[in-house]
Design brief:
- The protein folds into two domains: 162 residues, 3-Layer(aba) Sandwich (Creatine Amidinohydrolase, Chain A, domain 1), CATH 3.40.350.10; 293 residues, Creatine Amidinohydrolase (Alpha-Beta Complex).
- Helices cover 38% and strands 14% of the residues.
- The chain is built from 16 helices and 17 strands.
- The protein has a five-stranded mixed β-sheet with strand order 6-5-4-1-7. A three-stranded antiparallel β-sheet has the order 9-10-12, with helices on one face. Strands 13-16-17 form a three-stranded antiparallel β-sheet, covered by helices on one side.
- α8 packs antiparallel against α9, α10 runs antiparallel to α11 and α11 crosses α12.
- The protein starts with a helix and ends with a helix.
Length: 463
């Protein structure tokens, strides 16, 4: 937890961006796994955590925009709770720790909300993503669950996005800690990547590192020889010589700030010539993004420049043809990279995605595209100092997509289908780093950079 002043200043900044009414932020409750008492690992709502700092279930906070009054709602533990969990701080104590003078039992929250609504005041809330909080909001406001989406406060969403997008020095320190854990996870995976090893053993080992050093993984780990499946959570294969292993994994610190890295390495420790050629194209695209990532540029522009780099590389090895700019404008390159370049990161690995990607990654200036591939770009906004964003280009050979495009004659002016056919068993490559936008450009996050270049990969895997 940061100091009380940090949370107080965040709430004050939020209130200054709002018009009138009250701000209602719900924390998360425990969620049962297979029976009520056996719960999933608790994860607090990130916006509640950002403004109220309390990483325990069963809390809510209210900020009165006009008067500035702040109330933390929660229930003190009973003796039965203490028997099972040990002594716990009171709600009043926890309120003081985050700079709030007034606290009350949860039962009183409904009265506060009803009074505000009776007075005709706006009750600002953000989109709930857990069903328990949807039901809770219905009980508090009388708005039916099915109608909540129409009543969320866009004003509050935009205010939260504006504040959480720019990371403070304290937040950057926490993200760097998460990146340091990520370094240990990925270098361990590289050393374990040998023929005959089961993917599950490596996935379990690196997730254990995340738990040993922080709050666990920032998302379910992706680790597979079948890297052409973008989010492949199946870990049942035995690694085979001649294949590559894609690992997309990150950690959360104990304060829930995240990291997210991807590396793709050859099983056995040596790239084949074909693998090396494709891999180096992705490296060039990855470095291209860093060269263009600076305040004032839009991430959409950076994405498109990266796609040009990929297309030039694919032309050089005979998989694409024609004019590079025309090919990218048409979206022909998306056969190989059907996703966006990256996303915001912070308290969420896809930061603030629960608030609506249209508000997080886009604004009145930069709007999303409906073109295949470009439509999957989560973040297009103009970059600002303090943004933390992922740089993650890739090249994938997805047999079903290749077959469909070839049958439909898609982009035949730009795609060399006969040559592409020979790569259908290749798999996929993705390379991802976490990047801070600085005053003059950008820099990688973490004390040590995970090996990226071919010689670095082969050196660490063959020690």
């Amino acid at each position: 937890m940061f100091t009380a002043n940090v949370y107080k200043e965040r709430r004050d900044a939020l209130r200054r961006q709002m018009g009138d009414g009250i701000i209602l932020l719900l924390g998360n409750a425990e969620a049962s796994s297979n029976y009520p008492a056996n719960t999933y690992h608790f994860r607090q709502d990130s916006s509640f955590l950002y403004f109220f700092g309390i990483n325990h279930p069963g809390f809510a906070g209210v900020v009165d925009i006009e008067s500035g009054e702040e109330i933390l709602f929660g229930n003190d533990f009973t003796m039965d709770d203490i028997i099972w969990m040990g002594p716990q701080p009171s709600v009043a104590t926890q309120a003081t720790e985050v700079g709030i003078e007034k606290s009350a039992p949860l039962a009183q929250l409904k009265t506060v909300v009803e009074n505000a609504m009776r007075q005709g005041r706006k009750v600002h809330f953000i989109p709930p993503y857990r069903y328990a909080n949807k039901v809770w909001l219905e009980e508090l406001t009388g708005i039916r669950v099915a109608e909540l989406a129409a009543h969320v406060s866009v004003e509050l969403i935009k205010a939260i996005v504006a504040l959480r997008s720019v990371k403070s020095a304290l937040e950057i320190e926490e993200i760097e800690r998460a990146c340091d854990i990520g370094y240990e996870m990925h270098t361990t995976a590289m050393r374990m990547c040998k023929p005959g090893v089961k993917e599950q053993l490596i996935a379990g080992t690196i997730e254990g590192i995340a738990l040993a050093h922080g709050a666990g993984v920032s998302f379910p780990s992706i680790l597979s020889m079948n890297g052409e499946t973008l989010h492949n959570h199946y870990h049942g294969n035995l690694l085979q010589e001649g294949r590559m292993m894609l690992t997309d994994a990150g950690a959360e610190t104990n304060m829930n700030y995240c990291s997210d890295f991807t590396r793709t390495v050859p099983v056995g420790g040596r790239f084949s010539q074909q693998q090396k050629e494709v891999y180096n194209i992705v490296v060039a695209a990855h470095d291209c993004a860093i060269d263009h990532a600076r305040p004032g540029n839009t991430w959409k522009e950076v994405h498109i420049e990266v796609c040009r780099t990929l297309t030039r590389g694919l032309k050089d090895i005979g998989l694409m043809k024609g004019d590079v700019d025309e090919a990218v404008a048409a979206g022909a390159h998306a056969l190989f990279m059907p996703h966006g370049l990256g996303h915001m990161m912070g308290l969420d690995v896809h930061d603030m995605e629960d608030l609506g990607q249209i508000y997080v990654g886009y604004d009145d200036e930069i709007r999303p595209s409906d073109q295949f591939g470009l439509a999957s770009l989560r973040m297009g906004r103009r970059l600002q100092e303090g943004f933390v964003i992922t740089d993650e280009p890739g090249i994938y050979f997805i047999p079903a997509l290749i077959d469909q495009w070839r049958a439909e004659g898609m982009h035949s002016d730009f795609l060399c289908y006969d040559a592409i056919e020979k790569y259908k068993n290749f798999g996929g490559i993705r390379l991802e780093d976490d990047v801070l936008i600085t005053a003059t450009g950008s820099r990688f996050l973490g004390q040590k950079r995970i090996p990226l270049y071919v010689d670095e990969i082969e050196e660490i895997m063959n020690k």
